[in-house]
Amino acid sequence: MWTVLVPILAWLSYVGNSVFSSGYYSVILTLFLIGSVLAAVYHSEVIAHRLGEPFGTLLLAFAITVIEVGLIISIMMGAKGLETITLARDTVFAAVMIILTGIIGSCIVIGSLRYREQSFTLQGVSTALITLTSVIIFVLILPNYTVSHLGGEYTSFQLLFIALISLGLYLGFTMIQTFRHRSFFISPQNKLSKNQPVQNSHDMISRKQLYISCILLILSLGIVVLLAKLLSKDVEHIVVSVGAPRSLVGIIIAGIVLLPEGLAAFRAAKSDEIQTSLNLAFGSALASIGLSIPAIAIISVITGIRMSLGIDIKSTILLGLSLFIITVSLATGRTNIMQGIVLIAIFLIYLFITVVP
Predict the structure, then answer these.
(1) Quick check: 20 pLDDT over 80?
(2) Higher pLDDT, 101 or 36
(3) What Cα–Cα distance (Å) separates residue 196 from each residue in 46, 56, 73, 199?
(4) Which residues cross the membrane (predicted)?
(5) Exposure class string for 307-338: b at 16+ Cβ within 10 A, else e
(6) Cα separation of 15 and 20, whole Å?
(7) What structural domains does the chain harbor?
(8) DSSP line for 274-285
(9) 236 vs 104, which has greater pLDDT?
(10) Degrees (nearest 5) of the Cα angle 253, 55, 107?
């Protein structure tokens, strides 16, 4: 029952913010934010069990990306001048680093502590990695080396072309994941047990419950982003007051937006379903950059808002190291705790360098 009430009460509290605006009310909003995140995790798991892999994880990644795009565009449209020229870049880069190092690293450690080693289907991870690496280089690194426009920016024509290529790669990956090679994204354990008459969770969840969970998932994710945006001013005030860079605010907001997927991935790893964790992580990263950037690029060209995508050399080194470690770690089809520890170490370095540049 709480998974139904919390998102509704959170929406009511968001509407009431214009009337009850105080420090104590911000604490209440924060509690509703956390509750909505937990509700989103619950409903995403209901949908995932009903639809089966990889449709459930794909739906969650798509829903969060749509909300993320709406959040970025609303901030870009509301600001003036050069205030938001790097907003899309900073948000997407933070999301990618959080997913590749923080979420995947934590999932590997959680699973390894309980099961020592966990296995996954190598073909699916390889397909996701080559697609993700290509899109990351096209969007975040290549702009620094074009000569048509300086400052890590694409021209309008270049931006639209890169957006089209990125979207095409994401759609191609989605077709591979859902239809042509769906078995690549199913765990080896499920493949071995496919002839066993278990699979009761699919039948236990009714169509009515599925529809209710879909609606409540959208409500939960929507209020998470709205509350995160609302509380971002308080977060920015705290960050500035302690002398930290403003870029830390973007990481905090990205972390809040990714909480539903992160918690779902952690629970899957704890249940010996590392394949589901990886599907969630890579699907979210690909959607974040393969869907968000094309949508924001089109809005940017139409409205004339400038958008700088190229990351600096420090970020390029950390991103390259993360992709290299992920590729090597997942090359055998099995995970161990050291791989997760290294990824978490990179994540901590990323956070530290952001706070102490």
Answers:
(1) no
(2) 101
(3) 22, 22, 48, 8
(4) 23-43, 55-79, 91-113, 125-145, 157-176, 210-228, 248-266, 278-305, 311-330, 337-356
(5) bbbbbeeebeebbeebbebbeebbeeebbbee
(6) 10
(7) 2-355 (1.20.1420.30)
(8) HHHHHHHHHHHH
(9) 104
(10) 50
